[in-house]
Amino acid sequence: MQNFDVIVLGAGAAGLFAAISAGQRGRRVLLLDHAEEAGKKILISGGGRCNFTNLGCVPERFLSANRQFARSALARYTQHDFIALVQKHRIAFHEKTLGQLFCDGSARQIVAMLLAEAAAAGVALRLGHRITEVSRADAFRVETSHGGFTASSLVLATGGPAIPKLGATDFAHAVARRFGLPVIPPRPALVPLTFAGEDLDLMRPLSGVALDSIARCGGVAFREATLFTHRGLSGPAILQASSYWKPGEPLLLDLLPEQDAAALLRAAKRARPRAEPRTVLAELLPQRLATALAARHLPALRMADLPDRALDSVATLLRGWRLLPAGTEGFAKAEVSAGGVDTAALSSRTMEARKVPGLFAVGEAVDVTGWLGGYNFQWAWSSGWVAGEAA
Ligand code: FDA
């Protein structure tokens, strides 16, 4: 049985950061993971370039049963603190869009930076350790496939169940429950939406078509690209909206943001009465989508044959297509899981369980979920950092 001050379970973004921050305070830290490699999700993130934070990171861009919870950690370790660390390691980066910061080179640079910081802070990193039991007597005790360890502080940083083929598990939730912490049932977020019936019949042949759009759902709106897939819809606008979507609720899709679709269609009818409706729609929308929508909603050979009210009703559809998703593509395709350890059981300043001194939960394991665009990594850095300061 080896003794440490702090044991961190999970060497992903949040666990590495908690270990670094505790190690820098002189704590003897053990960082355990069942995977053979640290930071696997970091490595594949952002298409291999890691969207490591967002310049516009504000608490309002996170979902949680307690919308105020993330405020404290995000203020104590900000996106600017992480950017300064990236600059210290001379990692070149750029803003892609909407404040999203990516490495110019590779996500490997971020993992290498974190491993270097962990080594400098004296963190003992043990990979390939299957955790068989977690208990507490005087201290926390963690049994693994390679022996047992004890510590006065335990940080749960094993993430959520999104993308199980990468080794993701709901282990943190199970351990939290065992210590009496409530868990908000996890659900897939930042995930493609699936459709059925006539909607899917229309969408499936359009697989691969993408366009600028506004997706509205659950009282929020996201202006980004929508992508048709063979199962329904994806693309950043849909992924963002999916985090707010609840089964049975509609999704409203604006395919012509900021355009007066009715005026455009009426003007086209007057200017070119002999034009085919699909040709006119193709001036506003991708060709394949225009052809599919014209076949379904503008069944005429020439614009002149369509009454204005038919044009107006297509315009209404283009500006607010009301769709009823059948579901999501599930944890297998979700970028993150929403839900997790209930924030009501945690201190927002330190991430420590109020009723179990020495027990901390950080990162995706907790019921805080960011928007697409670097927000989830910033939550991992911020929550990990404040836990490491207190563990
Ligand atoms: P994370 O999942 O990273 O780490 C958990 C660690 O615990 C893993 O190392 C795992 O092996 C280990 N573990 C799990 N179960 C265990 C067990 N039972 N025993 C021992 N160890 C266990 N976010 C963002 O901000 N920008 C981006 O560009 C992207 N891109 C992106 C792409 C893809 C494809 C995905 C799936 C996700 C993203 N994300 C993202 C989201 C981001 O990856 C995610 O929010 C963070 O990795 C969460 O960090 P955590 O450390 O909490 O969990």
From TrEMBL:
Pfam family, one: HI0933_like_1st
Keywords noted in UniProt: FAD, Flavoprotein
Cofactor(s) listed: FAD
Domain RsdA/BaiN/AoA(So)-like insert: 187-336
InterPro entries linked: BaiN-like, BaiN-like_dom_sf, FAD/NAD-bd_sf, RsdA/BaiN/AoA(So)-like_dom, RsdA/BaiN/AoA(So)_Rossmann
Domain spans labelled RsdA/BaiN/AoA(So)-like Rossmann fold-like: 5-389
UniProt-listed NCBIfam families: aminoacetone oxidase family FAD-binding enzyme
Name listed for the protein in its UniProt record: Aminoacetone oxidase family FAD-binding enzyme
